[in-house]
Amino acid sequence: MLKLVLDNPDFLVLNKPCGMPMHDSAEAIVPMAEALFNVDKLWLVHRLDSDTSGCILLAKNKDAAAEFGKQFAEKTIQKYYLALIDSKPKKKQGTIKGDMKKSRNGDWKLSTDNDNPAVTQFFSFVVKDPLQAPEINTEATMRPALRLCMVKPISGKTHQIRVALKSLGSPIIGDKRYKGTPSDRLYLHSYVLQFTHNNEFFNASCLPQTGELFAKHLDSFFTQHAKPWLMKWPTFKA
């Protein structure tokens, strides 16, 4: 279910569950949040794919909606995502950049053009499977290496992170659309939103509520990587 992360007179930050849609349904996030948190009207100021979980910002009035919309457009709101992959990416960290082009059946693909590029920065870390005993770690028995990616999208394009990781040969686990390994959910989660409002800084974060792989591996990961804003991200130049 929807869980409250931050409550402010002008906005809510909520932890959206995997599978909750943005639009066109009584179960969409806005009507559900209005009913659950007793708010007359909420405004969407950004979006998450239905199967992506995590932090989402909703405005409580038109002025706040306009302000946050401007901040997203100007790329001053910082976003950090968690993603799990199980195939070795072409590179372990860096920047993925290119125009998003429509493909078949509602898919998107990354091109080499840079007219209006999607820009995605990431680090990937191998995580150990606690169920895999060291004595059976042979070429024949080893499972694909599980990697947890900390992802920072600079832009905000549809399916951007999913397409970026797919372009590296490493689709997200559970991503049916982009040929990820079948699993119990899409392993993509909006972990942190950082923004200012009325000259006050907010750092909103939340952990996934579902996902066997997230439950198994996040504790060990966060002993070292709980604060992604402190990582040495590449300098972005528009």
UniProtKB/TrEMBL annotation:
Superkingdom: Bacteria
Gene Ontology annotations of biological process type: enzyme-directed rRNA pseudouridine synthesis
UniProt-listed InterPro entries: PsdUridine_synth_cat_dom_sf, PsdUridine_synth_RluA-like_CS, PsdUridine_synth_RsuA/RluA, RluA_PseudoU_synthase
Domain Pseudouridine synthase RsuA/RluA-like: 10-166
MF annotations from Gene Ontology: catalytic activity, acting on RNA; pseudouridine synthase activity; RNA binding
Family: Belongs to the pseudouridine synthase RluA family.
Species: Glaciecola nitratireducens (strain JCM 12485 / KCTC 12276 / FR1064)
Protein name per the record: Pseudouridine synthase Rlu family protein
Pfam family, one: PseudoU_synth_2
